[in-house]
Design a protein that fits this description.
By secondary structure, this protein is of the alpha/beta class. It is built from ten helices and 16 strands. The longest helix has 16 residues. It is elongated.
């Protein structure tokens, strides 16, 4: 299971540390935040204590309206579970009682000026991304017309060279050689680099290229959702599928199915152009359009 420290969250969102500085190395193990509303009134049956606890205006206003004894009881009940940290949103003040409790129990108390709903959305998205299950595979990841494509094939088949051609046509490199795949949900796989290969493209006979230095910022993208898996294979005579519409195949990555096609290589074949066509065709299919169905309907109309 992947984890991150509270300190990494502090740095990412530039959070103010109000208490518990000694425990910023505390690990966060769950990729979602929680607002402890029901817990403040004494209901703990489903309390996700491993999550980052968010205290918005509702929670802080409720606590401030309690008398001192009741407030101590309500806060103490939650603090005793030792969540990884508390984050107060909207820059709220008057937190002396919270500071004391968190200091006593050595729990980080943090504050942001962002509104509660905005911060929760950003924090949940960030935690989901950085804590997502991941694998590293050999290939090239590139964004074509806004569509994330994973290029695979045997070493030396020409994946990087084809990616270079696509970059020259205005598309964006995400990762070359090693692609990190992250599972964000049961339907979403994110492709990214491993930091070491960020912005680099390795070309045989040329060497390493930094695509940002050579082609500018437009040539590189940090990450992309993988929507097409394309395998580049050697040309085999009479093996191409020439049917009107190829039956959809998928490849599973971290139990997420990704549409898969195979493109055979042959000298003189515009593989980069075929990849662009595949991307555009996939997009049209998501919009409900089928070229094969359109073609057959025209034939039926002419025959009638």
């Amino acid at each position: 299971m992947k984890t991150i420290t509270v300190n990494k969250l502090v740095k990412e969102f530039k959070l103010e540390v109000l208490a518990g500085k000694e425990k910023l190395d505390q690990e966060i193990t769950k990729p979602h935040t929680h607002r402890p509303g029901l817990e403040f009134i004494g209901y703990f049956e489903f309390f996700p204590m491993e999550r980052v606890q968010i205290l918005g205006k509702k929670e802080i206003t409720y606590l401030q309206q309690l008398n001192e004894a009741e407030r101590r009881k309500r806060i103490g009940n939650i603090v005793n579970y030792h969540p990884p940290c508390f984050i107060v949103t909207a820059g709220q003040s008057g937190l002396t009682y919270l500071k004391l409790f968190c200091a006593e129990e050595n729990i980080p108390l943090l504050r942001t000026t962002e509104d509660t709903s905005d911060f929760i959305a950003k924090a949940d998205a960030y935690l989901t991304r950085v804590m997502a299950p991941e694998i590293a595979i050999h290939g090239v990841c590139i964004n074509v017309f806004g569509i994330g494509i994973l290029l695979r094939g045997e070493s030396g088949v020409g994946k990087s060279e084809i990616a270079h051609t696509l970059i020259g046509r205005g598309h964006r490199l995400v990762a070359d050689d090693i692609v990190v795949l992250k599972k964000l949900s049961h339907r979403t796989i994110l492709g990214t680099h491993n930091e070491k290969n960020k912005e680099f493209l390795a070309l045989r006979s040329i060497g390493l290229l930094n695509v940002v230095r050579v082609y500018g910022r437009k040539a590189f993208q940090e990450e992309t959702r993988i929507t097409l898996d394309i395998k580049l294979t050697k040309w085999e005579k009479d093996s191409l599928n020439n049917e009107l519409e190829v039956e959809e195949e998928t490849t599973d990555y971290l139990d997420v199915p990704v549409p898969h096609i195979e493109i055979q290589l042959q000298p003189g074949r515009d593989v980069a152009g075929l990849i662009e066509a595949a991307a555009n065709n996939w997009y049209l299919q998501q919009q409900g359009y089928s070229a094969a169905e359109d073609f057959l309907s025209r034939i039926e109309e002419n025959d009638s």
